[in-house]
Amino acid sequence: MSDETFRLLVNGAEVTVEADRDTPLLYALRNQLGLKGTRFGCGLGLCGSCNVVVDGRAVHSCDTPLWSVEGKEVVTVEGLGDTPLQRAMIDEQAAQCGYCVSGVVMTATALLARNSSPSETEVRQALDDNLCRCGAHNRMVRAVVKAARIEAARTEAAQTEAAR
Ligand code: FES
Ligand code: FES
């Protein structure tokens, strides 16, 4: 197979990648675009450590071929900036070795974008496919719930202020 040119929007910037059409998005992000925050775990769509957000949905970048993300919006952990979610992950000491964390953060980011106040059960369901070999899963769930509460309180305060 010969290389083709793919255009996508990564963390708000238009980028061009030349590669075989079946190249996993993960390889393009890490090896061609230098975005090493997205991790290679199983390479089989089973662990979630490679998760990124594509057009608002968390996907396994290890089994997402480049042809399928042509023209789409991709967000990696580098594109998030300083968010309540990342601060809550630190506050709850959710990271042990940290290997799974960027994938967890991206899955949770997609969840919070579509459901700003998820229940603990909903957070657990969303993170069910993100495996953590360090056993920090419960702390991560707590962090996501906490981040949602912080964001909700912030939104309420802003609305109260605007109504004055
Ligand atoms: S590395 Fe992609 S799901 Fe495990
Ligand atoms: S913190 Fe080590 S794998 Fe999750």
From TrEMBL:
Gene3D superfamilies: 3.10.20.30, [2Fe-2S]-binding domain (1.10.150.120). Its EC number is 1.17.2.1. GO terms for molecular function: 2 iron, 2 sulfur cluster binding; metal ion binding; oxidoreductase activity. This is Nicotinate dehydrogenase subunit A. It comes from the Bacteria. Residues 4-80 form the 2Fe-2S ferredoxin-type domain. Keywords: 2Fe-2S, Iron, Iron-sulfur, Metal-binding, Oxidoreductase.
